Each structure stands twice: as structure tokens, then as C-alpha cells.
Amino acid sequence: MNLSRKTAITLLAALVVLLLVGTQIPGAWRDEAFRVAHLPWQMNKVAHFCLFAAMAWVAHTTPLRFAAPRVLAACLLVALLTEGLQFFTSNRDPSWTDVGIDMAGAVTGLAVEHWLGLARGQPQ
């Protein structure tokens, strides 16, 4: 997949904005959405994992190619920020477990990019 630098930065920014908006939805609204959806798993946990995987992948892939430690540090900062902001959101509580889920997503995104880079024959 060939992204221009501008497209990659725009995609990364959109993912961060989506994450920030999603983490600020009042807990009652979130709970009602889960009730209506009848999902057998917590949608927000899966969404966090997928968003962080996507952010890490975009940040580490061409054309951005940010170093893995830098990507992980940025993801940790965003995870702590989004959890900290939940102190100020109605019926929401920050969770260290959610930070762990976020970071698991980031590590997965980096691993997928590493594997895809090897498959494309790119040096890692």
C-alpha cells in the first residue's frame, strides 16, 4: 500500500481524533449503544486495540517510518492521555487495563508492519 506522506499524516491524525472523541462519550451513552448492539464482547476494548494497531502501523510504515520505540512512546502517551481525560467524562473511569489493551494493539500494529515489510523485502 503506497501512501503519500500527507495522506499518512492525515490518516494518523484522523485515528487520533476518532480515539479522543470516542473516549469522551459519556458512559451512559456508551452503555446504551452496547445494549442496543447486543454484542457478545465489549466493543470499546476491541475498538481501542484496533485503533492503536492502526496508528502504530501507519506511523511505522512508509512513508513515515517512525522508529518503533518512538511509536510505542507516542502510543503510551496517547493511551495515558485518553484514560486521564476520562476522569472528566460523565460515568467513565480510567483503567490501567485499557492502557494495556491500547499498548497490545500498538505492539500488534508494529509486528504486522514488520512482518509485511519482510514480505515486501524491505530492510527493517
Describe the structure.
The chain has 124 residues and is mostly helical. The protein has one domain (5-120). Helix content is 73%, strand content 0%. Helix 1 runs antiparallel to helix 3 (43-60) and helix 4 (68-85) runs antiparallel to helix 5. It is elongated. The model has no long low-confidence stretch (mean pLDDT 89).
Keywords:
single chain; 124 residues; mainly alpha; 5 helices; 73% helix; 0% strand; elongated
Structural class by helix and strand composition? mainly alpha
- Encode the helix/strand succession as letters: HHHHH
What is the domain total for the residues?
1
Round the Cα radius of gyration to an integer and report it: 16 Å
The residue-averaged pLDDT reads 89
Proportion of residues in extended strands: under 5%
The number of helical runs is 5
Task: State the end-to-end CA separation.
Answer: 17 Å
Instruction: Name the shape in a single word.
Output: elongated
Low-confidence stretches: none
Quaternary structure = single chain
Main beta sheet strand tally, sense and closure: none
What's the number of extended β-strand segments? 0
Write the SSE topology:
Blueprint: H1 5-23, H2 27-37, H3 43-60, H4 68-85, H5 96-120
Helix pairs in contact: 1-3, 1-4, 3-4, 3-5, 4-5
